[in-house]
Amino acid sequence: MKEFRAAIIRMHERRTGKREIGRLLGIDESTVRKAIKRFEETGSNDNRKREKTARSSRNIQRAKGMIKRNATTKVNSTRKLAKKLGVSQESARQILRTDLKPYKLQKRQKLSAAARLKRLQRARALFRRFSNGRHRQIVFSDEKLFTIQQASNHQSDRIWAEEAPDTEERAVERTQKAESVMVWAAISARGKSPPLDYSIWSILEEKACSKPHPNLESLKKALKKAWKEINLETLINTVDDFPKRLEACIAANGGYFE
Hints:
Elements lengths: L4 H9 L4 H8 L3 H14 L14 H13 L8 H8 L3 H11 L13 H17 L10 E8 L19 H4 L9 E9 L2 E2 L5 H11 L7 H14 L2 H20 L7
Antiparallel strand pairs: 1-2, 2-3
């Protein structure tokens, strides 16, 4: 209703009543009152400039202080932080997402001082042994259990939709003791065994287990098809990651590096 503000003020200065102004202009009386109040408080018909107090430097520093004392979401969730700062949850979320970065907790195998030292020694020995491209002569082998159930990653798998899909569409069903098959495989920079590195298993799982299988034969068929589709370039890239991981382990002194 900004276009009516000047007319409202002119009529108000001529001592026209608020109700009459509204009737003449075809607008609500409340709109007339707001326009007059704005003009009396600011001396202008322009929109008020909103003060961005929620993400003020003071609130940001307060939030960072709270996070520094306890960085877990159990103590400083969006809702709890908003309550402490006296702002909305959306404002608290903007502070957390814009001025801070969220990191997920990660489960790791416990590493004692002795285990770290052993990892460091082995990584150094392997790096020396397989330097100058000799890592491409290694044959990497491993085994993994696959089931007929659909593989899913609850952290990253999502469904795009304008509205929330039906619960049945979003469900990834699980049963106890599902039919399974143990798969052994070996790869090198020259090719793969005919029937590993962890990345190869993830490729197989993504391709062969994106949907549940009705039986074991269906699973085996999908695994064989996915295995044949892995090209030499993928194998070479996977093998070439080996010395990089050794270097990362050495740089971390045998500790966590990913």
